């Protein structure tokens, strides 16, 4: 006769098990030592080939869905490109004005209205300049496009030619200060036209874009449009891919662990990743750029800091190499 079968003890057992589960999850997310127990991800990173180095005279264009993506994925390699004599440009598709909880905190209000959300957009747009400066990128090599955060998929589907009204800001046209085309309607057509202007102006040799496997809708929508525009120019081979939203709480552990490797994102672990190793100085400046996004670090500092690692990852292809037998499923 088990004592656990006593009806009054059963709820305690479940509460105990639930607590254990939460503790295990917290340990996995936060403690490096737990991460080491799973898989051989660190060894896999060490075995990856080094990314092709940047060269003097190259023009590198970073396509960033939101303020901070450019720093999180690529803050180290953008410094390396410039140290090698390349020119680095950054274009942000949105000002990150869809994060209500963020506006509630930064605007000190419980129920942020459209004007609070627009204020957040302008604040985040200003933060891009501080982050870019920390990475050594001059302001005249940056472009804020200012389309709606969380709305890119709508722009390329239902709102390709008729303006989309963003639910949080109630805006249907670009309002962010310093935008490339102020007043441009929130349509796929207008965003595409802006991207073409950027490509014509920069004439990039290398374009850094989100991979299609990144599960944030704005990210994989931008991946699609970047592939489309570069293929049209017969320059799809100039694209290189990165991931921020890579699944399963990646990257773990959270927080600053700058000597740990950045492992392959679970959702895109079949891409032919290459490794970019960062020096301590590059990591320090990357962290400085992360912290320039004060509106974000107030909420998710530990997620953001987890991208300051010994290396960054870049894939020359958007899909796993053919012959792996996984291309169809992994490409979704
Ligand atoms: Zn993003």
TrEMBL record:
Pfam families per UniProt: PIG-L (PF02585)
Species in which this protein is naturally found: Deinococcus gobiensis (strain DSM 21396 / JCM 16679 / CGMCC 1.7299 / I-0)
MF terms (GO), sorted A to Z: hydrolase activity, acting on carbon-nitrogen (but not peptide) bonds, in linear amides
Gene3D superfamilies for the chain: LmbE-like (3.40.50.10320)
Coiled-coil region: none
Protein name: LmbE-like protein
